[in-house]
Every structure is written in structure tokens, then in C-alpha cells.
Amino acid sequence: MRSGVKSILMFCAVAVFMAYANTLFAQQIGSTVGPTVEPMLPPSPVTAEAKALVALVQDYYKKSGNFSAAFEQSYISKMTMREQKSEGMVHFAAPKMMRWEYEKPERTVMVTDGARAWYADFERKELKIYDNFKSSYMERSLAFLWGSGDLLADYTIVIVNEKRVEDLVDAGSRTVIEAVPIESNAQFEIIYLFIDPASGRIEEVLWFDAMGNSNNLRFKDVKTGQKWAVDFFSFKAPGSDWVVENLKF
Length: 249
Fold this sequence. Notes:
The chain has four helices and 14 strands. The strands form two sheets. A twelve-stranded mixed β-sheet has the order 7-10-11-12-13-1-2-3-4-5-6-14. A two-stranded antiparallel ribbon has the order 8-9. By secondary structure, the chain is an alpha+beta fold. The radius of gyration is 17 Å and the shape is globular. Strand 3 and strand 4 (108-112) form a beta hairpin. It has one domain (18-227): Lipoprotein localisation LolA/LolB/LppX (outer membrane lipoprotein receptor (LolB), chain A, Clam), CATH 2.50.20.10.
């Protein structure tokens, strides 16, 4: 389990943009993520059962094609123990496109077409555009969402046999994977994937950052085989009164 794990997780079983969301929640609640990355522990051997489960997950996303889902998110600051809740919709499309739409508590949109990224804050009327967003590590980490890649190439995987994980999420009838990255990243420490054992679909995600803050994502109303126009995965300021800033990722 998490105690004793010295490595940092760069996930992205659901989206690299959750790093952005995590930072935003930390600012709202008064907690920040520290920059220190501790040494990695040697990876543990992956069991045949874990390999089979990973194959099931990857096969599900390979067959599902473009998909969308509603989500509920809960961020808890370890420092203040305050909880920030949010909800919205997420969309994925091949080859490497994502769109996160937060509706509560504030409307924000986070989009990437695989090469650029946009972060839109509707309350503040601010749009940040990130150039050179493309990242080989990100692409490897997220590749299974588009039906390619190999989770075992980037993470050490262990099946967790506990009814309640980290005293935060009930496993229920789902199978739980604990994932630790082979390459370290200062944003995340560890992640748990709650998987429907029949289909291989990821129903819930729980992860911790380097400061011990937790993020929990729950997915519902999943729709596969979706189709969108290409410009759905880009963003333009809705009005001339918006402040637009171009940044390097």
C-alpha cells in the first residue's frame, strides 16, 4: 500500500490534465505540491493475474473507440483536511485528444489536440494556451486510452485485495490495481484503478500527490464509439473581453 512507496506517479489512466486540476484545487484550498522527488524503489515482479487484468483493461479501450463520460471529483488537502468537490464531462478521441469540461463549482474547460493545450476559466474570462504540449512520456502513459500502448511498460502493477482502499474508497465488486510509475514525476505518488472485472472498464480512480493530498474521480454514463468535429478538441475565447495568454508547456 501507499506507506513505504517511495516513487512518484505520472498517471494518466484518465488524463494528463488532472495534474492541472490538482494544482488548481490546491490553490483554492491553500495547499501546494512540493517539488521533491524521492528515489525510486526497485519494481516488484508483476503477477500473471495482474498481467491478465491489464490486458483486459487495454482491450476494453481498444474496442471502445472514442468515448465520453460524466465524472465526479473529490480533492482532499492533507494539510487542511478540506474537501473540494467538482463535476463535469470528459471526452477522449484518437489519436491523442482530450476535453475536460468542469461545470461545478466553477465552469472551466481543459482541452488538448495532442500538440497544444487550452485552459479556459469562464468566471475570470481567462484563456491560457500551452504550445509544444506534445510529450513522448505522456503519449506512452495515455496510449492505452486510444487502444495502443502498454501499461506494463510504464508502471509496476499490483492487484489490491482490500475492501476499502486507503480508507477512502470502497472496492465493492470491482478489482483494484495499484500502479506505480517506472519513471518518477513530482506531481503524483501512487494511483489506484477501480476496474469492472467483467468489461475491463475503469470506473473510478484514486491517487495521491507527493504531499499526500488525494484526488478521487468517479465515472458514470460512459458512452463509447463517439464522434466529434476536430475543432471540438481546441478552444477559442468566447469574447473580446477575455484575457488570452500563450505559454510553453
